[in-house]
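Fig. S4 source data, part A: sequence.
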Amino acid sequence: MTAQTTRSQSRLCLKLFVVIIGFVGLIPLVTAPSSSHSVTQKVQPSSKIGPRVLSATADGETTPIVILLSDQADVRPAYSIQDQDARGWFVYNTLTSHAARTQVGIQDFLRTKGVAFQSFWAANMIAANANHQLIEGLAARPDVARIDSNTPTRWIENPVVEKVGVDANSANATEAVEWGVQNVNAPALWTLGFTGQNIVIGGFDTGIRWTHNTLKPKYRGWNGTAGDHNYNWRDAIHSGGGICGPNTTAPCDDNGHGTHTVGTVVGDDGGGNQVGVAPGAKWIGCRNMDQGNGTPTTYTECFQFAIAPTDLAGNNPNPSLRPHVLNNSWSCPASEGCVTDAELQTIIDNTQAAGIFVAASAANTGPNCSSVADPPGIYDSSFTVGAADFNNALAGFSARGPSTYTPNLVKPNISAPGVNVRSATRSSDTAFSNLSGTSMASPHVAGVVALLWSARPHLVRNIAATRTLLQNTANPAVTVAAQTCGGIPSTQIPNNSFGYGRVDALAAFNASVPVTVSGTVTSSGGSPLSGVVVSLSGDASDKTITDSNGFYRFDNVDVPGSYTIIPGRVNHSFQPSFLSFELIGNKTDAHFTGTYHGFANANPIDTAEFFVRQHYLDFLNREPDHSGLIFWSDQILSCGNDGACHERRRNNVSAAFFVSIEFRETGYLVYRIYKSAYGNIPGTPVPVRLNEFLPDTQQIGQGVVVGSPNW
C-alpha cells in the first residue's frame, strides 16, 4: 500500500520492533481475584461488532475478522515469581491453557458452520472469515466480547514525517558514534564495560536485513560462522511479502523500517558506524507486516513468538528464550480497528507480566494537546516516548498528552533523539539512511534499558523499578514552545509535552548504585533495645539484628525499589509495626519503639537469630557479621517445626563456635590456660566458672577478629 498522509497512517510511529502488539482487540485486565476474568457486561450483540466489519459485510461480502473472547486469562501472579524462567513458563502455560479451555464452544460453533479459523492465545482470540449472518451469530454469544476487522492496514510512519529535519547528504557520512547514541550518554556506560551484554531485544516489525554489517554480529542466531534461525526468527507473513516473499526461513526486510529501528538499538559494524545504543545486546526478529501493512493476526503471531520463541516450524516453544525488551513502532487508531482504545490493554499487561519491557512511541500527531490518542502509547503500562532533535528541542510532530484513554495520565513518559537519526537500512549490507519520527526515539530508550540491565542485574525484568529509575533520572533540559496540556505547564516536570525529560543512561546507572538502609530500635523509655530481629522485604529480602546500641543496618540494597521493614522480638510490640517506602537513596531514619508486655511468655534465646547473636557475644566477644548471622540462624530455621531438629542444630551451632579458629585463638586460649593451671586430670572437667571465664576471654580477645589484617 502506498503511503498517504491520513491521520491514521501518521499514527504509525516508527518504533523499534519491539512489542508487536497490534491486535485489534485485546481487553483490559480487571481486578477480579479469580484465575480468569470476564471483560464484558451484558450488551447488545450489535454493539460488539466493529464499524469496519459492518461496512465490509453490508452487501453480503465476506471479510476477515478477529473474535475477542470475553474471558481473558489472569497472569498477574507472575509478578511474584522470582525465578525468571519459571515466570516466563507460568505466563505461557496460563495463556495457552486458558485459551484451550475457553475457546471450545466458539470453535465447535465455527466447525458446524464449515468455517476455517485460526486460534490464538497471546490474547484469547480467534481469526476467521465471515459474512454478516455468521458475524451476527457470533455477536449473540455471551462468550464473545468483540468482533473487529482483520483487514491489512499500513501501520508504519508515512514518508512526510520520516523526512522532517533530515539532511539528505548525511546518510553516508560516518559519525563514528551517532549523535543520538551520544545524547543518551550510552558511551559513558560502554567505557565502564556495560554494552547490553546478556540482554535480548525483540525486532518485530517489517523484518530485518540480518546480514547488514552492523546487525549480523548482534543476531542471536549467528555464532560467528553460521546462522541458526530456530528460536531467533519468525515470519508471520504467509502471502505476498514483497521482495522477501512469504514464509521466509531467515530474517528479511521488505520495507526497511525494521532494519533501521533494530540498528538504533544494537547496530555497530566495528568499522566506525556505531549507530546503536547497546552494541553488546543481541536481537531476535519476527516480520509482522507485509510491506508496511499489518493485521491483528500477524501481530498476534509475532507476539506469541515473543512470549515463547519456537523453532522454524513453529513447534517446541521455549519461554526461557523470550526477549527482555520490545519496542512498538506503530499506533492503532480507530480506523484500523482499535475502536474502544481498550483492545491492546490486555496484551501490554500480559507482555509485562512475562517480564518484557514495553516501549511505545508517542505518535507523530503533535503539537496539539491530547494527541497521544491511540494504542499502545495511551496506556499507563506502556513506556511512551516522545522525540527531540540534535539541539534537544522537542519535535513539532511529537504527540502531546495527556492520554485520551486514562484521564489525567501524563504522556509521554520520556523523550529521546528522534529527528535525523542515522541507522542501517535494507538496500545493502553497508547502506544507511536518516529518518525522523517518535519511532526513531523509542529504539534509543529500548537500548538504554538494555545497557542498564546489563549493568544492574538486579533490575533485569523488574519493569516497575526500571520505569521509575528512567523517569527520575531523565534530563529535563528539553526546549519546547510554552504550552499547557492537561492543566500542566511545560515548565513543570513531568509534563504532557516531553514527560520527565530526555532519557539519560549514565544518570540512571549512577542512581541505581546500591544504598544503605539503617535505623535504631529503642524501648518506650528511650533506651537502646538490642536483639531485635529486623526483616527487610519487597524488591529484595534480608534480615539483621540490633546491636547493643539498638542499631541495625542493611547494606547494598538495590534501588530503585519498594521495601518494607518489620521489627520483631518476643514479649514486645513495636510502634510503628512496620515501615514501607520507595527507596531511591540512602535511608537512615527507620526508627522503631519497642514496648515490653510486662510478662514473659517466651524466651528470646529460643529465637534463632537471638541465639546466634548471643554466641557471637559469648564466644567471640563481638556483634555478628551479617553473613554469619544469616548462615547460622538459617541452619536452625531450616528445621521448620521439627523440634528435635531444632535441638540438634542448636547444639551443632554451639559446637561450631566452640571449635572455631577465632574462639580457639581467644576464648579457647583462656580455657587451655585454666586447664594447664589446674592440671589435666583425665575425666575431670576444668574447674572454670562462667563469671570468671567471660571477663578473661573479653580481655584477651579485645579487638581481635581472626583473619583480619594484623590480628
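Fig. S4 source data, part B ends here. The chain has a mean pLDDT of 86.
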